[in-house]
Amino acid sequence: MEGLPETAAPGRTATHRQPSAPGAEPVPWARTAADLLTLSRLAVGVGLALWPWQPSLRSLAALFRWKMALWTADAADGALARWSRTPPSWIGRQDIWLDTVITLSAGVALARMGFLPAAGLAAWTAACAAAYALRPVETVLLVFMLPLHLSVVVLAAAHRLPEAWVFLAWVVVMAVLGRRRLTQVIGLFIGGLPDGPRRWVLSWLPAVLRAEPDHAGPEADAGEPRGIRAAPGERDRE
User: Fold this and answer.
1) How many domains does the chain have?
2) Cβ–Cβ contacts within 10 Å for residue 135, how many?
3) pTM of the model
4) pLDDT over 80 at 232, yes or no
5) Any domain includes 106
6) Is 18 domain-assigned?
């Protein structure tokens, strides 16, 4: 997300983006690089699901390393997209769907190793698909991905893999360097909640974890962070 207004779906509030700094010039090659990196992540993610994994800790450690590489690439393509100062590309607007496919692929890899019950993964996927059909917001996709992300980390920590400590250091670094990304993901999650739960979360969420408000019009809800109601497919990497 680089600061350009997106048109929201009917009945939804548009996400208003901050304008680029005065004198800032677009960097088209950075947008292209971001898109290529995103497609590379997708190819690797699908490859993880198709790889003939063995039921071993060695396979789990290898998958964990690949997941860390994919998470790092995700942060990098978002940084490139913002730096490009260009309108969101089609690939950028599909970013959350690509992330969902990549995350599901890692879950399939865990199931093939025997670390995750295949029936449980199938049931969770079906339940979230049904929830999305009833309420098509990106919050549902984030909820779907969360336990699959955590399962890789928890399994690595439970089996005392050295990679778990590397991941802890990675989280600290990314929390410092990518705070803006973190707050926007939190805002995206909150934006898809029903009014009651959304206002409850906002009542206790620390200000440091809230997305910076954009310049939304006076019609935006008072006391609610701006720009958290983007319709599915409206967000770019950020």
Assistant:
1) 1
2) 11
3) 0.71
4) no
5) yes
6) no
